[in-house]
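Example record

One chain of 474 residues, shown exactly as stored in the release files.
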Amino acid sequence: MDSQRVSSRVGSAADVTRRAALVGAVVFLACLFGIATRLPGTLAVFWPANALLLGILLRSPRLATPATWVSATLGYIAADTVTGSPLFSNLVLNLCNVAGVAAGFLVFRLIGQQRPWLTRVQSLALVAAVILVASSVAGVAGGFANSAIESTPWQSGWARWFSGEFLNYMAVMPAVLTAPTRADLRRFRRRGEVVALARRVAPAAALLVLCLILVWAVGGSGAITFAMPALVVAALTTGVFVTSLFIWTTTMWMLVLTADGHIGVPDLGAMPVELSVSIGLSFLAIAPIAVACVTNERRAAITALRHAVAHDDLTGALRRDEFFRRAHRLTRDAADGVATVLMMDLDHFKALNDTYGHSAGDGALERFADDVRSHLGRRHLFARLGGEEFAVFCTDVSELDAYAIADTIRIGQFQRATEHFAGHGVTVSIGLAHGSDSLEMLFDAADRALYDAKRQGRNRIVTATPASDVHRSS
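Predicted structure tokens for this chain:
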């Protein structure tokens, strides 16, 4: 036992070290990218490292171990070292970076965890608060650092750091927080939704490309707003993650054109992008994210409402109208027109309610519904038609397979009746109809077969043709 504990601890320590090293590597590469955007004598035009680190930690708080903080700090320092930055400014400026990230993570810890991120407008308020604190702390520390290194006024350094950090966080963090997991991607592919997403994204992407070309072609300070229509379209038609990617792309493009003076902003010396432009681009990012969050909430509310309208509150089975609507659609789509209907009715259900109370009856209905669902495929329909009467409809099983499913359901219900209610619980009678007749004829045949099962003693299956010729029972 002791050796197992030691082995577990060693494995856990190795996992922590590996994750910390991975985070450090991400920070290192992000810093190299940011350093590549520095103009001579200025801060980086675009610095994604802090936003990436904070986004990763907010998304996976368990990564915020001492090893991760040390690894991330070394990643900052290593990037400046390999690109030839002086040691003193390297250490001081990167400690300012870490201080801002740490402050943002502390606010997250104090306010409370809210995941998944950016699915609601309230979540955006939390993200904005985290970003504001992280940018402010980095600005205060950076102001003092720049004053010590460059002998410039503290206020100037604070403005440069705060505006740059606020913009970088707003451009990068939403995409990090809402990026799909591997499980999300697998589920997405399995449901065949890739083509549907591409169709939704294509118009917004084409509009964004057009807007960014106009920014380059027209120029001028007002050009920073040209991308807003594309971002709003993305927010309304796609989702928060895609909108965040669009914002990230737009921000980088605007910063590049702003820094080289292409859109009419004058050279500001050590400050590569004017303060008002940085804040304006930040607000340009906030608005579409807010619209995407509202749209996401609206979609979720509509989905919940549609589910409530279509499904029974107690059992989660389809309601009668929705069941028949979907059954008609499946019948039209069936290649050979052959379908199967199971009509099921719980035996002696009123006696169970009278003896054990309505809570026992509700529990029996819920357990029965759960059991039936466990034996059905994704394309099979299951409904509660009323009271203790249920139905199943499918177009992709043979009559023998349908009978096997029905018998499994019957046996399982009989076992529960015996185990939970000492033989006084409810069993199930089932009528089965299979063929290529109309939906109405199949249901009529299954309904007649069900009542034949009741007349023959209950707890049995009766199979009938649409002409109601009963040819098998058990």
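Notes: The chain has two domains: 2-308, 320-473.
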